[in-house]
Amino acid sequence: MSVISFICCLLFIITISQASAQPSFVNHFCLSDKGRFTANNTYHTNLNTLLSNLTSNTGIDYGFYNLSYGENMDKVNAIGLCRGDVKPDECSSCLNNSTVLLTQLCPNQKEAIGWYDKCMLRYSNRSIYGVMETSPLFYLSEITNATDVDQFNQVLGNLMSNLTGIAASGNSLRKYAAANATAPNSQTIYGAAQCTPDLSEQDCNSCLVEAFSRITSCCIGNISGRVAAPS
Ligand SMILES: *[C@@H]1O[C@H](CO)[C@@H](O)[C@H](O)[C@H]1NC(C)=O
Ligand SMILES: *[C@@H]1O[C@H](CO)[C@@H](O)[C@H](O)[C@H]1NC(C)=O
Ligand SMILES: *[C@@H]1O[C@H](CO)[C@@H](O)[C@H](O)[C@H]1NC(C)=O
Ligand SMILES: *[C@@H]1O[C@H](CO)[C@@H](O)[C@H](O)[C@H]1NC(C)=O
Ligand SMILES: *[C@@H]1O[C@H](CO)[C@@H](O)[C@H](O)[C@H]1NC(C)=O
Ligand SMILES: *[C@@H]1O[C@H](CO)[C@@H](O)[C@H](O)[C@H]1NC(C)=O
Ligand SMILES: *[C@@H]1O[C@H](CO)[C@@H](O)[C@H](O)[C@H]1NC(C)=O
Ligand SMILES: *[C@@H]1O[C@H](CO)[C@@H](O)[C@H](O)[C@H]1NC(C)=O
Ligand SMILES: *[C@@H]1O[C@H](CO)[C@@H](O)[C@H](O)[C@H]1NC(C)=O
Ligand SMILES: *[C@@H]1O[C@H](CO)[C@@H](O)[C@H](O)[C@H]1NC(C)=O
């Protein structure tokens, strides 16, 4: 029950904040246990430099941004990823908005991550490139039962397993797959799977398998479910 009320609460917040000018994240985490910085120290200015470079970079049209800036203890690493079906201009606008919002929401955390509907932004003082991470993780579900749950789940499982294989075998710039399948009662099921493309095929596969197992445990039998994690 606490999971359900958490989701309801989250959806409620999203509905309300859509009315304000700055669209809000679907979810974000300020990872305070990974360390803090003091305002205007070297880490902070490096972070600002890095994020302004990320938003001014117009040379990327495949939706994946991977940057580092600074030296030693003050080095900042960032990854930006857009959903695989998002066009480059929308992608850079989404990441631009993310840099503003994430630094407002997490004003002194060295590590933070935020998700809009169309993109994800994360940064850390650790090296995060090529490291598979499934935590922190969150999910959203539409709590309306599918009809014919067993057949729905079987088609869904096949679809997601196919998409996992296709996404994982993508290249170092893009690991994304989307498709639909028809359940026996002619409902259409839409699916998408994506990893940050810095992962190996094997890590991407493990990540998506774990993510889908979490969807299965939270949202099984419901007509929609979405799960997101750093990788
Ligand atoms: C990141 O910052 C934390 C907290 O300040 C520190 O303990 C950790 O060693 C730093 N990591 C790196 C790779 O510098
Ligand atoms: C940090 O720098 C900004 C802009 O230069 C300034 O407005 C702010 O007061 C400074 N904060 C601290 C704590 O020094
Ligand atoms: C991402 O950053 C890593 C570490 O700095 C670097 O080795 C790699 O070439 C970069 N990849 C891309 C696609 O920019
Ligand atoms: C940021 O962009 C400026 C101007 O394009 C460039 O001189 C600088 O090297 C970039 N820094 C990083 C960390 O990419
Ligand atoms: C990024 O956002 C800022 C403020 O939200 C805006 O002024 C700027 O034009 C945006 N830049 C791009 C490239 O969209
Ligand atoms: C970025 O924010 C502006 C308003 O602040 C909004 O109009 C725009 O749609 C946002 N872009 C994306 C891709 O969410
Ligand atoms: C949805 O499915 C669950 C589990 O199968 C069941 O307990 C519940 O009564 C169903 N709700 C509706 C509205 O059919
Ligand atoms: C999954 O892939 C197999 C083999 O390519 C195909 O026969 C099957 O129809 C696919 N299933 C779905 C639900 O996409
Ligand atoms: C489902 O996928 C097929 C094949 O990719 C595509 O032709 C079709 O338009 C899609 N159906 C819907 C309803 O989006
Ligand atoms: C839909 O999800 C809710 C919350 O996770 C769960 O209680 C319910 O049983 C699910 N519906 C079905 C048909 O399993």
From TrEMBL:
Record keyword Oxidoreductase present: no
Segments forming domain Gnk2-homologous: 25-128, 134-231
Keywords: Repeat, Signal
InterPro entries: GNK2, GNK2_sf
Signal peptide from the UniProt entry: 1-21
Any Pfam family matching the protein: Stress-antifung
Domain of life, source organism: Eukaryota
PANTHER family according to UniProt: CYSTEINE-RICH REPEAT SECRETORY PROTEIN, GNK2-HOMOLOGOUS DOMAIN-CONTAINING PROTEIN
Listed name of the protein: Gnk2-homologous domain-containing protein
Originating species: Glycine max (Soybean)
